[in-house]
Amino acid sequence: MEITDVFLAVGILITISILMTMYRVVKGPTTLDRVMATSVIGTKVVVLLVVIGYLFERPIFVDIPLTYAMLNFVGTLIVAKYIERGELWKPYT
């Protein structure tokens, strides 16, 4: 068994786990469950992109997931702030 076979199997398992997490995004009982499931999917996509970058021997596929991880983190914080306060920003008067 070659190392590329292992990474291919890992990529397939990550894809399956992303699809399983999509159930929580669609059927989540609360909004917070859906937000957390979306964040988990974003994290798994980052790992999947790194695995794909290794399989295709493209180092650029490591830079893209780092940027995507930062955007995922900031997006989760913005949604959490909106859920907590009911608004994203308050204008000064």
UniProtKB/TrEMBL annotation:
The chain crosses the membrane at residues 6-23, 35-56, 62-83. It is found in: Cell membrane. The keyword Cell membrane applies. One of its GO terms (molecular function) is sodium:proton antiporter activity. Coiled coil: none annotated. It is a multi-pass membrane protein. Keywords: Cell membrane, Membrane, Transmembrane, Transmembrane helix, Transport. One of its GO terms (cellular component) is plasma membrane. This is Multiple resistance and pH regulation protein F. It comes from Ferroglobus placidus (strain DSM 10642 / AEDII12DO).
